[in-house]
């Protein structure tokens, strides 16, 4: 366990450092270095680290998670991410929500801990929807996660609990999308 934790930590640090270096070089070369743009860049970096952790939880492959995230660390070189801080905050909350959702399937959980992770995931998802309407795609990601891991069909009770959660997420996302279309 210690060996894998160190590998995860080192890879997350490398990804964060690469994204930070790209961000600073890009902002300095474009003469756009400001506190607001740095804040947006760090929001992206935190979202990127949760992206790495989520890909690692889905595919259980260090190489896939590392190379996908490392390639995404070059995104701060383009200026479009600095203009949308609310979407970056939404992405960060989506990443945290998904990451906490993946712990509902963890082994060795104590009584009702899976429900606590489910509730935490729901609260983080609500925050993501508050910041960005694009967070409405997250139920699709959770559904893909469930299909890939095929763990929701092992026990009928687990499937029922997660089906209610997915149902709530679907209708919350639908509400946000309808609100966006009506405005």
Q: List the helices and strands in order.
A: HHHHHHH
Mean pLDDT across the residues is: 81
Low-confidence stretches: none
Q: Provide the β-strand percentage band.
A: under 5%
Helix content: over 70%
Output the number of helix runs: 7
What can you tell me about this protein's structure?
The chain has 183 residues and is mostly helical. It contains 7 helices and no strands. The radius of gyration is 18 Å and the shape is globular.
Annotate the secondary structure layout:
Elements lengths: L1 H28 L5 H25 L2 H11 L12 H18 L10 H19 L6 H12 L6 H27 L1
Note the main attributes of this structure:
183 residues; mainly alpha; 77% helix
Give a short synopsis of this structure.
With 183 residues, this protein is mainly alpha-helical. It has helices at residues 2-29, 35-59, 62-72, 85-102, 113-131, 138-149, 156-182.
């Amino acid at each position: 366990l210690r060996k894998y934790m160190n590998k995860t930590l080192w890879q997350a640090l490398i990804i964060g450092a690469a994204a930070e270096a790209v961000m600073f070089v890009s902002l300095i070369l474009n003469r756009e270095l400001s506190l607001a743009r740095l804040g947006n860049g760090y929001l992206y970096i935190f979202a990127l680290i949760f992206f790495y952790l989520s890909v690692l939880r889905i595919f259980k492959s260090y190489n896939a998670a590392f190379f996908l995230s490392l390639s995404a660390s070059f995104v701060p070189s383009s200026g479009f991410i600095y203009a949308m801080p609310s979407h970056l905050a939404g992405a960060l909350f989506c990443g945290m929500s998904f990451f906490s959702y993946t712990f509902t399937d963890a082994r060795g959980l104590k009584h009702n801990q899976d429900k606590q992770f489910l509730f935490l995931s729901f609260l983080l998802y609500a925050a993501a929807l508050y910041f960005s309407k694009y967070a409405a795609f997250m139920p699709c990601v959770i559904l893909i996660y469930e299909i890939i891991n095929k763990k929701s069909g092992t026990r009928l009770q687990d499937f029922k609990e997660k089906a209610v959660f997915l149902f709530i997420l679907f209708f919350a996302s639908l509400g946000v999308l309808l609100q966006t279309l009506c405005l």
